[in-house]
Amino acid sequence: MGFINGTRRRWLLAAVVVVGAVAVAAVAMVWKGQTSVATVTPAGVPSDGVSAPHDMVWVPPGVFLMGSDSKLAQPNEKPAHAVSVPGFWMDVTHVSNDQFAEFVRQTGYVTTAEKKPDWETIRVQLPPGIPKPPDEVLVPGAMVFVGTAGPVDLNDYSQWWRYVPGANWRNPQGPGSTIDGKGDHPVVQVSYDDALAYARWAGKRLPTEAEWEYAARGGLEQATYVWGDELMPDGKPMANYWDTRQRSFPVVSPKAGGAEGTVPVRTFLPNGYGLHDMTGNAWQWVADWYDAAYFSKQAQLAKGQPLENPAGPARSFDPSEPGVPVNAPKRVIRGGSFLCNEDYCLSYRPSARRGSDPYSPMSHVGFRLVKDAEAPLTAAASASVQ
Fold it and tell me: Less Cβ around it within 10 Å: N or C end of the chain?
């Protein structure tokens, strides 16, 4: 996912050349080893609207192995290490366009993508010495996946991402695009700050990275996917990702079919806790700063014992993007999106993690929230926390 921030940086640097300025750019769960959600009975308890709002589910406390040592895992996912988390409530789905629209209607909130970019938040993502651009080139907008007309070198991600003036949550692909008829799709083109603002309004918060992964796994200890170890059990897709059997990434020509984009929430079966789309569809902001080496540091700190409810590192660290300061602010995003695929991005796995500029909205990043409240007083909940 470093390619996202890198693309924004390349757009900015390109603007310097083209227009003479820079622009914005312990406790193992009982389903260990399951390969199909069809045989899993959700352990999460849906809210009755008393302890937490409707459309949330209680995720019971537990200990799990965070990260992965599988052959598919990237270095930033290693090593797997034991983590304990308390119980919490989590949104069953991504925050949708309809839900975000109601927030905006009630508050008048203006998102990051709808505002003139702030140079100070851009500057920290760029090499030292880049001059401030003229105000007239700092226009509201966001990063949009535009794809390519044919196969390309996958090392050059700037070929399929563009900073598009006028792109925002209402117009995810830029002027002329719309979310009409997509009220039940995940809201995208929202920055980390936008997610925080919505969370404050809703009386919730962003999950920590540990909470997110624990919830995503749904009780399947170290399974490759949130539904098990088989990508397509019984030949059925289990998440919204880019299927390279149908079209090459990142080709979007009419002949090749192109990217489908987001789909309605609840399109696919829930995981073991009753949560939909924990991977695929749209990336999800989480609370933590991103440190590429955080898991290795955590494993050393743990010394074989479960880490209790980790809240993430104190600052960002990412040496993967040449030209971008290693300590440039980045927040963790999780879950992958409709663009992830076997050829380029295998991030529709519960251990996959990336860092992203918190002030850079993108057309494939959304969020879901959690809430701290008492566990539901039901027989099922009592059994799940024993």
Answer: C
